[in-house]
Fold:
Amino acid sequence: MKIQLYARKQGENFPAFENVVFGGNAWIHVNDGLTLVGHGVLMDNDETDRFTTLIAAGIDYTLPNGLTLSGELATWEKRVNWVPNASGESISLGVKYQFGNQDLLFPDRSTIGNQFGTDLIPVF
Structure:
């Protein structure tokens, strides 16, 4: 099992708790090819009074040739002044290939990357 927590803050004052994103990822390796993946994100933007949550679950299946197929189901909700404003579900399907020991060479295209951006800062 691998767990990653991350946070992002925008603004000039530090420390402050406005315009922040907190989240986490978890990977559970079932066997050599199958990995269960979970994501959770909470965003609080005081400037626009928006509060957004996103929860996603998916799988990664790595074929013997190194090609990884992935799928993810996500649900999200946006609140403005704590009143539900918008919500939805999404399905993400993908294929990736890792060359050698390098990390991904292309930007993150996951639901979280599309919703919140990819410049989140890992905590550990």
The chain has one helix and seven strands.
